[in-house]
Amino acid sequence: MRHFINLKDIPSNDLRRIIIDAKKRKKRRKKLNTLEMDNGSPLKGKMLIQMFEKASSRTKISFYLAIKQLGGGTLTLRSNELHLGQGGETIADTAKILSTYGDGFMLRTDDDKKIQEFKRYLSIPLINGLSPSSHPTQVLSDIFTVEEIKKRPISKLNICWIGDSNNVLDSLIAASVKFSFRLNIGCPKKFSPSKKIKEWVNKNKKKIYIYHDIKKAASGADVIFSDKVISLNDKVNKKRKKQQFQKFKIKQNIFNYTKKNCIFLHCLPRGDEVDEDVFLGKNSHVWQQASNRVHVQKSILLYCFGKLR
Ligand code: NVA
Prior knowledge:
alpha/beta; Rossmann fold; 2 domains; five-stranded parallel sheet; four-stranded parallel sheet; 11 helices; 13% strand; globular; binds norvaline
């Protein structure tokens, strides 16, 4: 049994094995939007319990399809339907119950401490489906998408992030260390990556490149990533934060500074950080990026359940 909580804590080899498996699975899978099972139904009889304390579209649906296509089932809960630390039931109690009824638990939460507490008390694998500090399933799937489109290992590419220093960026930074790729970050100074993640990068003897100028950050990029400036439940002055990011809005002319075939990726939902003509334009691969979540989620599930070939 293995958890999938933060890319920082997962060995590079394991992350690579998950991507290789997803590639094989995608090749064999004819139709994605059906519950028809993959050959061998490797997770037959397994039950994934999913719980969302925040909104979710892609993570929820892609995990649903993934476990079903592997032969298992899923139950989706909202936290307000559970006792969860209230009414005489501690997280330890809930974790014990979940471990009795289910085979795996996927949690999307606003509180990293909750992830740690569940990890402590669960005896089934825990998957982080987004927390304030990381969004590991999204970013691993994004690495898969980049390599699929570019047909090269990500270590040979220049990756650029334009936007807020949030959970998705923290996972992308972790991925840059695990997969050894160059990562340029373009953001206002006030919204630079945290000291904690920068120290972790240093400790691993790697580097990230932070620019407070969008053109410098995008220079020579093979891939530009972005995400909403205001994340779900971001408790800030939204108007002011958007203003502070004005110079970091992604417009079509940014591609004058990148490599010629630079692609644009975005995990959705989107806001003002990107122009509509970029998001829907020729450089954008956001729909392919979203659909790949299903393939990679399957290999993550197999990894957690100890069934990755
Ligand atoms: N940074 C965003 C990602 C949404 C998938 C958020 O946390 O809301």
